[in-house]
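Notes from hallway chat w/ T.B., transcribed later so I don't forget. T.B. wanted the structure written out for a chain they're using in a teaching module, and asked if we could keep both sequence and structure tokens in one place. Agreed to drop them here.
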Amino acid sequence: MNVMKSEVRQGAYYDSVVLMQLQKALAELPNVADAGVVMATEANKELLAAGDLLPANVTAKADDLLIVVKGETETAVTEAINQVDELLTRRKASGSSEYRPHSLAAAAKQLPEASWVLISVPGRYAARVAEEALDLGKHVFLYSDNVPLADEVRLKQKAQRKGLLLMGPDCGTAIVNGVGLGFANRVRRGRIGLVAASGTGLQAVSSEVHNLGSGLSQAIGTGGRDLKAEVGAITALQAVNLLGKDPTTRVIVLVSKPPSPKVATQLLQAAQATGKQIVVNFIGFPPPGHKLGNIHFGTSLVETAELAVHLATTVETSLLSPVRQSVQGYVRGLFSGGTLAYETVLGLTAVLDQLYTNIPIRPDQQLDDLNRSQGHTIIDMGEDEFTQGRLHPMMDNDLRLRRLRQETADPEVGFILLDVVLGEGAHPNPAGELSPAIADAVQAGKKVIAIVVGTDEDPQDLNSQIEQLAAAGAIVFPSTNEAVDYIFNRLPEPEGNVPPVSAAAFGGTLSAINVGLESFYESIKAQGGTAVQVEWRPPAGGNEKLMAILAKMKQKG
């Protein structure tokens, strides 16, 4: 039967790498069956309990070091615990002998050229360290997780005001000036900029870009919550703006798990406004098509990398998206074809706020009153509500003409979108019936777009229909994708400018201060960067009340 003993060291902090190495060293000692060495958080105690390594009635707080050893004899267990200090001393002696500052402020004085602070301390301390880094004018790579959402929003807003970038919390990966931060892969420099709210997504795309022979200008992680509605993509928008102005970046790639719909729209509008080629993979978010203006949609991480490499190696700057010809006003679509209407809703959902319809993709898109548009509105007039007691709009345009005149009279309307479906059984000359109302709309300053579906053998004569519509002033397209693309390229610039990020840190040799996992410090130096490791300990021994008092005293000082 195994014997188990434990020891609690109050207020003794070590990072998780040190604890992992110590645990492994104890478990490898003679006659030791298992060992656990953790900071005594509730989560860690639960893990010890699951492995049958939590002693009964143990009294250890979250900031205490808990050491547990299980062995074949009491002597073996006691000797193992007695070797803890020796093992820690041996590890420290084998490490670097260089001086290590004990505070972030001291580290900033030691390495004044450092533009970055990497933070990987426990989440309950991370916000304080990040705030101090921002106050020192440093960009932040915040690896720590379990940071409250309210702290994330507050810190990102502060960073934004200061022209600084805060990547994270829970940001596992980034590549800045060719140096990987966190769990990054080593990739060559190149013309592709990457913005990712997914750490492994960033790794997968960046690795594939490298394997395809191309490279990255910068790869900016945002943290997994950045594209949630509560955060509003603060870091992602800053990163897009930064890469949009970077002359070395030709293609910008956006990768994320499904973002908030409103945030996705905002981010796509900001990306489109850069005028650069954009590749998007919002994993699980329905793309509006393969391409929308200068935005290309990838359906897998590998395809995303392939698209980016293709665009980076074949697109000349002269072929990038032309200067936007903005059209003010709402989009109003009046469709006879249900599938065409749905495809248009799908395409516009990704890029328009306040989109309403009687065939919603999301509940918030449901149009309140079928007889009156609100915001951007797409109506399928072939739905049952419109066809009771009257012919389908593919045969009778009367109801659609009434609505067309209604939209023409609305001063807030900029675009009117129609489909004209030809074929057997359809209206014998729909263009002839619609053209006078289209001409009136064009005369009133509306952009009228017509999607014509048919063949040259249809009884209505495809070419004749197109000619009549064009003569009335309509812009004619054969598909919804092209119509949506036309609208997208004429949407007004997004309201509000993102404060620019100081670009000085995105060039030359990466210089950083590391607070937390020593492996991150060693990785930066191994990649040719310069760095200082802070010998960090929880302030006030981790006592929350004392920490709050110290923080208030610091603010008054």
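Follow-up for T.B.: Confidence is low (pLDDT under 50) at residues 317-321. Might be a good example for the class.
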